[in-house]
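Hey, can you fold this?
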Amino acid sequence: MYAATSANISSKLDIGALSMCRGLAQNTTQRIVSVSTLQCAKAGETLFTEGDDADGISEVVSGMLRLYKLLPDGRRQITGFLSAGQILALAPRGIHGYSAEAINDVTLCRYPRVGLDRLIDDVPALARRLLAVASHELCTAQDQMLLLGRKAAAEKVASFLLLMADQQGKGDEISVPMSRGDIADYLGLTTETVSRTLTKLKTMGLIALPAPNRVEIHDRDQLEDFAIGQSESGL
């Protein structure tokens, strides 16, 4: 993994656009940048594995990560996908509770725990920012429990597409660099079920699949009906 020092981060990034810096005063953002480093990982590279020491947090600047846990029998449960603006590796006990891999080429802004702890003591607004991130992680975990425990296949796939659209903030055009197998491991489905459901949604005119790694939402209202189990199509 390539790492750049904080000295050249300002020349490579729009600091004000970083999620960690958003809404904070300029002098505070400069202090945050002063303790950070820029890291790049290639597609397929492991950033850390479950059980590793967690000595900082990172923000995704570009690209997408998969987060996952392995069951004792080797099966994989993907717990989330992170893209630009999302925070990675909040670990209150100092140990990573999951593994993280780059799906495509990824750039991260990394904030070491030692420097961050000092800043939190001095800047209450940063502490509130991290509390908001932790609260969002909790809500995401609760949504994932509902997704896996109570929703049917069509509801799961529709919910996933809407989640990706909201997460990426690009309207109804969604980048899906992860494989169908990744999506299946996230939703608790088989790869075949994911592919079949996407094809049916396309046939119904709800989505388009212009490329394997791209989805366009054509009927958001009906897709939202699927996500909450109110569709009567029998999909």
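Oh, and this one too while you're at it.
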Amino acid sequence: HVRLRLIHNGSASGIDLSQFPLGHGLGGLWRRKNGFSDSDFLVVYVGRPERRKGFVKVIRLWIDHFQHHGAKLVLCGPERSDLLAHCESIPPNVHCLGFVDNVPEILMASNLLLLPSMHEGLSYACLEAQAAGVLVVANDIPGVRCLIQHENTGFLVANNDSDGFIDTIEHCYRNFHHLEGLRLASRKSAEKFCREKFLPFYLSFLFGLTGG
């Protein structure tokens, strides 16, 4: 028999909440540096341009339903060539950033994270978005379900359904300023995985293995 043990609340190494200092205006600074206004509704995708991560789903949603919408899509990871592999031209409300090393800053500038992955472990993209106070709209799969309580700390879409994503994105777009309570609950949920609190439990576990 294999004995399983959950260290603290789980995760690989916790999350460094100091990278997500709410109320410090870092998100607004990033918006101004990159040509976005404070009123722009930014939907972000963070991940590799792979079908299993939901990249193709995101592109199809945007091309088919949101390219003439008031929201703007920010792609972190994919290059323009990755997008052009799935569409003839890039809509003006889609912004490909390619590889980035400042994901926390971008998340704090965003309104919503799209996470239509086909499978996930404990998703750090989701966890970091929650730490940044970003609304998360995700496929309802086990790893993500550990972090999101539907309509409490984010939104889960059954069966990766396109209509479900469209309706939820529209709901968030129209009612963003009325969802402050959900965003605060999302941040509070992420705080359970605080690295500063997680590491003592992790070190204690390792010392126990070695008899230290």
